[in-house]
């Protein structure tokens, strides 16, 4: 079983992946933890794009997985048996993001209020159809871009609102 869970920040990807992982006995993978490596004594360090892509391709070839993230990768879309798109309404996303920030000590110790405000703004822009380019060629897609990217895989996509 290969499940790819996608959605914007605060949509519930991690929560759902943990529940499915427990149900199926598969350790879920957060794309953020693959892209941003934790190194002792440092904050998260972003992997170079080529290293990150090798990791994605390697993950896509394993027998079973549950992978979640805000990024869309053709390798994962093609390999997945099921694609779950979490698409809650706009007011829910910043609320969930701020709730996580205020209740999770890790979030508060690694992210400033300013970066959290920027993330809230990025969530709104993505909901309005404006994607966000990240360094090293990665892109957080808008809802419109996600919908268009998922069209070829419509038979294996479930949308949860």
Q: How many separate domains make up the residues?
A: 1
Largest sheet: 5 strands, parallel
- Beta content comes to 15-25%
Q: State the CATH topology.
A: Rossmann fold
Number of helices: 8
H and E order? EHEHEEHEHEHHHEEHE
* Radius of gyration over C-alpha positions, nearest whole angstrom: 15 Å
General form: globular
Tell me the span between the first and last alpha carbons. 23 Å
CATH architecture: 3-Layer(aba) Sandwich
Highest CATH level, the class? Alpha Beta
- Helicity level, as a percent range? 40-55%
How many strand segments? 9
Going by CATH, the homologous superfamily would be P-loop containing nucleotide triphosphate hydrolases
Going across the major beta sheet, what is the strand order? 2-5-1-6-9
By secondary-structure content and strand pairing, the structural class works out as: alpha/beta
Walk me through the structure.
This protein has 161 residues and is α/β, with parallel strands linked by helices. It has eight helices and nine strands. It has a single domain, classed as Rossmann fold, CATH 3.40.50.300. The chain has a five-stranded parallel beta sheet. A hairpin with a 5-residue loop joins β3 and β4 (44-46). α5 (92-103) packs antiparallel against α7. The model has no long low-confidence stretch (mean pLDDT 82).
């Amino acid at each position: 079983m290969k499940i790819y869970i996608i959605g914007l920040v605060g949509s519930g990807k991690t929560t759902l992946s943990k529940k499915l992982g427990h149900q199926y006995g598969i350790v879920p993978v957060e794309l953020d933890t693959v892209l941003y490596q934790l190194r002792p004594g440092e904050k998260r360090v972003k992997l170079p794009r080529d290293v990150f892509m090798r990791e994605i391709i390697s993950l896509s070839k394993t027998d079973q997985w549950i992978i979640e993230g805000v990024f869309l990768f053709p390798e994962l879309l093609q390999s997945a048996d099921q694609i779950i798109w979490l698409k809650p309404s706009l007011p829910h996303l910043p609320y969930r993001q701020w709730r996580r920030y205020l209740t999770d000590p890790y979030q508060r110790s690694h992210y400033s209020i300013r970066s959290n405000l920027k993330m809230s703004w990025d969530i709104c822009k993505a909901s309005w159809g404006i994607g966000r380019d990240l360094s090293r060629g990665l892109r957080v897609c808008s809802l419109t871009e996600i919908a268009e990217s998922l069209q070829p895989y419509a038979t294996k996509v479930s949308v949860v609102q």
